[in-house]
Design a protein that fits this description.
The chain has seven helices and 18 strands. By secondary structure, the protein is α/β, with parallel strands linked by helices. The protein folds into two domains: about 180 residues, 3-Layer(bba) Sandwich (FAD/NAD(P)-binding domain); about 160 residues, FAD/NAD(P)-binding domain (3-Layer(bba) Sandwich), CATH 3.50.50. α1 packs across α2, α1 crosses α7 and α3 packs parallel to α4. The protein is elongated, with a radius of gyration of 22 Å. The chain binds flavin-adenine dinucleotide and iron/sulfur cluster (2 copies). One iron/sulfur cluster binds next to α2.
Length: about 350
């Protein structure tokens, strides 16, 4: 899509990060007649959620991925939003009324004066290789839920990375990188239960011969119709939901299967099972780029390592998943309230 750059309108607000949160802030402000400049460091808008596949089965499973595409088309139709991709902030100075920001786009340096700055710099999926005991990066058939999503998006079907065959048995390990004292992330990432269950539904709809085992600690609800969706997962004979998390994955080179030990909550004893493929439901962490911005803007982090909101009087606002784990729906809601706060700031109400 062609880039939209019209800095002549000035734009009272700079939005850093062109994911669903940044896009929503820009659209909300535009609807209230406030022009803005939206910058994105990557070549295209959408952020992490622009890369998700559709997880519909018999019907839509409300993963919200297509909402992002709609908002991207919408933003390119607005004349009052200047969009700069492959652009980053390299410096900032000023005060609550006027911030002077230096941007870098390739070799070009752009200086902007704005009255408010919104940081919507997002998240990264947790790096699963940090959970050494699960063998990600060592065992070919241990992948992440994000890898499975990409597999479905690009190849259209699930397969084993080692031989390209259809895996008959797939285990999903929940809470990888979240709620885990051993790696220091105690928070719940909010999205990975629903994300994994929607992937299971989409896979089983397409290839019903694939049996799924969902190993979890707790199931985090997501959205209004989640309980109904969960009930449909429980009814499916090809899905086992087991409240137990395995401690380690063992690889059998002869059969190329992965062995897993976990406590069977019904029998109260340790059982061993083999799987063709293991999918790690990775949670979210603050993106590296967002962390760099906290240094530039001298912002502090929350206990969980996300960006803490500075006082509203500063004219700097933080929104979306970089302020704490959120799904797309909640990121949109959060971005709408950030846009409201920006309007209040511009009208001098703080
Ligand atoms: C594995 C995984 C699966 C998920 N599955 C789902 C799901 O099925 N459904 C759902 O609703 N949610 C899901 N989520 C959550 C979803 O990804 C987030 O809600 C959403 O991405 C948050 O949007 P955001 O705009 O806040 O951040 P992001 O999507 O991370 O976007 C931030 C943007 O800011 C840009 N940026 C960063 N720093 C800078 C900088 N300095 N300058 C310019 N640009 C910058 C980034 O390049 C990026 O484009 C999932 C998350 C993970 C980790
Ligand atoms: S499953 Fe997700 S991407 Fe597919 S139609 Fe429903 S909300 Fe859209
Ligand atoms: S959403 Fe589910 S898998 Fe993710 S951290 Fe929370 S409880 Fe664990």
């Amino acid at each position: 899509m062609a880039e939209k750059v019209d800095l002549s309108s000035g734009g009272e607000v700079l939005i850093i990060g062109g994911g669903i949160s940044g896009i929503t802030v820009a659209l909300e402000l535009a609807r209230s007649g406030i022009p803005s400049t939206l910058i994105e460091r990557e070549p295209s808008l959408g952020g992490l959620s622009a890369s998700f596949c559709c997880k519909a089965s018999e019907s839509c499973n409300k993963c919200f991925a297509c909402v992002v595409d709609k908002r991207i088309s919408e933003i390119y139709q607005r004349q009052d939003i200047s969009i700069l991709t492959q652009t980053e902030v390299i410096g900032v100075k000023g005060n609550r009324e006027k911030h002077q920001v230096s941007l870098k786009k390739g070799k070009e340096k752009i200086d902007l004066k704005v009255s408010a700055i919104v940081i919507a710099a997002g998240i990264n999926p947790f790096d699963a290789s940090q959970k050494v005991e699960y063998g990600y990066g060592r065992f070919k058939n241990v992948i992440t839920a994000k890898d499975l999503d990409e597999m479905l998006r690009h190849r259209g079907t699930i397969s084993r990375p080692s031989d390209g065959k259809l895996p008959k048995t797939v285990a999903f390990f929940q809470c990888v990188g979240s709620r885990d004292e051993s790696i220091g992330n105690l928070y719940c990432s909010q999205v990975c239960c629903a994300y994994a269950l929607r992937l299971i539904k989409a896979v089983r709809y397409q290839t019903p011969e694939v049996k799924a085992t969902f190993l979890y600690m707790d199931i985090q609800p997501a959205g209004a119709s989640f309980q109904e969706f969960l009930a449909s997962c429980r009814e499916d004979k090809g899905i086992r939901l087991i409240r137990s998390l395995p401690s380690k994955v063992y690889h059998s080179p002869l059969s190329d299967t992965l062995r897993v030990r976990f406590t069977d909550p019904e029998r109260g004893e340790v059982v061993e099972d083999s799987f063709d493929l293991i999918v790690l439901s990775v949670g979210m962490v603050l993106s590296k780029e967002a962390k760099r911005l906290t240094e530039l803007f001298r912002l502090s982090l929350t206990e969980d390592g996300f960006i803490a909101s500075p006082p509203t009087q500063t004219g700097v606002f933080v929104t979306g998943a970089c302020s704490g784990p959120k799904d797309i729906d909640r990121s949109i809601l959060h971005a709408k309230s950030a846009a409201f706060l920006v309007q209040q700031h511009l009208s001098g109400r703080f």
